[in-house]
Amino acid sequence: MITIYTYKLQGDGSDSWHVDVHDCQTEEQATIKNRVSREIVFEDPAIEVTVSIANLDLKTMTSKQLEELKALLNI
Predict the structure, then answer these.
(1) DSSP string spanning 2-22?
(2) Which residue in 35, 9, 12 sits closest to 23, CA to CA?
(3) Burial class (CB in 10 A: 0-12, 13-18, 19+), 22
(4) What string of H, E and C letters represents the secondary structure of 33-68?
(5) C-alpha 39, offset from chain centre
(6) Which helix (H) or strand (E) is 69 found in, with range?
(7) Which of 33, 32, 45 has the alpha carbon at shortest distance from 5?
(8) What does the alpha-carbon distance between residue 9 and residue 4 come to, in Å, rounded to a whole number?
(9) Nearest one of 1, 37, 5, 35 to 19, comparing CA atoms
(10) pLDDT tens, residue by residue, 2-33
(11) 50: pLDDT confidence band, cut at 50, 70 and 90?
């Protein structure tokens, strides 16, 4: 599976990206026939989203949230 991001300028001037997931190994193999899904997003998928930890309270986090945090931190 591969994911392909394609920039699209909307009619109102806003930025958007098609996010296409294909059941293949390379972009050259990607066709509409092997496309598994397509969605449109309005934030650049190439920019990594940062999360503020200012309000993080480890005492109130669920077990699942703690496990997700550990996975993100590789611990």
Answers:
(1) EEEEEEEE-TTS-EEEEEEEE
(2) 35
(3) buried
(4) CCEEEEEEECCCCCCCCCCCCCCCCCCCCCHHHHHH
(5) 11
(6) helix 63-73
(7) 45
(8) 16
(9) 5
(10) 999 999 999 999 999 999 999 999 999 999 99
(11) confident
